[in-house]
Structures are given as C-alpha cells and as structure tokens.
Specification:
about 400 residues; alpha/beta; D-Maltodextrin-Binding Protein, domain 2; 8-stranded mixed β-sheet; 18 helices; 11 strands; about 15% strand; binds pentane-1,5-diamine
Amino acid sequence: MQKWYSIKVQIVTIITQLTDRSKKTKKDADMSIRENFRYAACLCLAMLTAAAQAQEEKVLNIYNWSDYIGPDTVSNFEKETGIKVRYDVYDSNEVLNAKLSAGNTGYDIVVPSVNWAPLQIKAGLLRELDKRQLPNLAYVDPQLQAMLARIDTDNRHLVTWLWGYTTLGINVDKVRAALGNLPMPANSWDLLFDSKYAARLQSCGISVLDSPSEVLPPALLYAGKPAYSKAPADYQAAGQLLKTIRPYIGLFSGSGYINDLANGSICLALGWSGDINIARQRAIAAGNGVHIEALPPRNGSTMVLDAMAIPADAPHPNNALKWINYILRPQVQAGLTNQVYYANASLQSAPYVAPALAANTSLFLSADDKRRLIVPEPYSLPIRRLVSRTYTRFKTGF
Ligand code: N2P
C-alpha cells in the first residue's frame, strides 16, 4: 500500500510539472514540440517502471549449486519479505551455462563460477545490478570485490556467493589400508594423478567431478602447466595424464560423491573443499566411524569462487536484488558458512561463525595455503571447447 502511495505521489508530481510547463508554454511560445514529447515520454517511462515494480509478483526463482545454502536461509527470507522462493539446483557450470545460453530460464538468481561469468556477461546474459538497492555491499571483503572486478568491470554484474577450492577428499583409514606398504605421498595430488597410487585406491573407490572445467585445471596443474592454460598443446599433455588414471576411476559425480564419501562407499574424491567437509560432518553425525578429510592445498590448487547474478531476462529482478542484499548480511553469510563449510564474502561475519569451524584449517586456510590457490581465469570459447573435448575423451576412455 505504502509503495502504491509513493508511486501515486511520483506520478502526480510529474503530471503537475507537465501542466505547469504547458502553462508556461502559453507565455513562452518558443517551447518546442520536441521538448514536450520528450517530457511525455519520461512520464510514460516513469509510470511503466513504477507499475512494473509494484506489479512484480512476490516470487523469486533461484538456481544455485546443490548443497550450497543454510538450513533456514530461504525460509527466513520468505518470512521477512513475503516473497515465495522456488529453488532449483545444478552441479556444474556447463549445465548452468547451457540453460542461460538457451534463454527464458525463468530464473531470477543464478550463481556461476567467476571464470564462466565473463562470457555470459559478454553475451548479454546477465543484468547490470542496481547498486542503490544493495547497501549491504558495504560488508563485502574489498579483496574479493577487487578479484571480481578483474573480470567484471566495476563489479557491475556479480556479487560473491562463497569461495573454497578444488581438492581431494579422503577416507583416511581406507586410503591407508589400500595403499598398504606405499606411504602417503608428499604431494597429495599423487593419490589421484599418479597411477601407482590410483591403481591401489581403485579397490576402495575413486570419484572425480563430473565437469570438464573442474577436472582439467587440477590435471594441468599436476602436469606442470598453467591451470587455465591458453595453449592447446597443454591440453594434450593433460589428456595424456588423465588417460593413465582412467581405468581406476569408478565414478563421475558433482554432488552424489558427498554421501558416497560419508557412508564409506568411496575412499577418494576429486571434489570441492566445502562439499568434502559436508561429507566429513555427515559421517560424524551418522556415527559410522568413517573419517573423512579435505586435503588442504599444500601443493597448489584452484580456487572456487562463485558469484550471484541476475539473468538479463529475469522475471523478478527487484526481488532478486532484495535477495542479494539479504544474503550480504553478516549473520546470513555466517549461516551459509556454518552449514556448507565454504568461506563467505563478509569479514564482519566472523563473530557469527560457529567456533568449532574456526579450527578447521581446510576451511579457514593459513596465509601460505591461501597463496597457493590459483584464481580461476576466464575461458575463451575455443579453449572451453578444448576443455570439453579433452574431458569427454577421458570420460569415455578414448
Ligand atoms: C556446492 C559446490 C559448489 C562449488 N556444493 C563449485 N562451484
């Protein structure tokens, strides 16, 4: 009601100004017709914008990664705003990108990784944010904002959701048992990428992420190449490496691996730091004696950095802005971290983070480990195709 009242006031003000102007026109006979037209157009636009805002139904359609939200994040927002949230999930940037590119997703909020977003921005798939509606941007860690600004000029389209890194999750006891007389390697990536280790771990189950753009960067890194290389020959080298371990991989998974780790049906997973910590927590909660660890990035790793964005054709962009602003509150940010074990964008959220998490060095990385993270770089279209082709050959075993 209040909103409608203020819209009415705005419209009446514009009409009054227009009438005043036409009165002056009598005095000032030189006011051009063109100027009057421009003014009338402004009036129409103001009315249309006001009406659109007022008419936006109380619905918000969110498309986010699975296992990436607090238990009451959505329900608290719904209670507070009266906006009904519909929440769908995906497991890879490839899936999200295909949907965004096809258009008409009906989604108001999506959460691409920052190396995928630049092509989406360039293609006009993401909407510019109206920052006047986002006062809580003041809470965002300036370092993260600066990192995002490197791929999104002036932070026009993206706001950090959460961050972590790609790593190996292990079932500590099963891995030790399967390795037998082989000691744990100094470089923990050997467990997956050195066939001497992978061949042994096959017996207790190996899973890798079901996404080309998540598997190639660590494989390149292990092969001594830049994780986001732009040189086609490097992808050949990574392909060769992946071929050597293909026989030992039993599962390709972007989310199911969490439960598989937690219940002991696999012992090694190439996954994301937070997800592996979720698996650890599920095993603890189940009391099944399974001990899962997310390996910190001692030998380098790729950073996972995901950001909220509003699709260009979002049906409820104003509700989307309300959501982004709500998510940026330090308490809400802590609620995400406490549930999914990824670091958030708000330095002020620290007092609300559960004390038990503060000791987890795979979540709150040491300064040295942080330095070992490689910030994802945007793919060009040809490289993205190469990433996808290399991965498909790996997965299908050709
Ligand atoms: C959520 C995993 C998201 C991290 N479970 C990869 N972007």
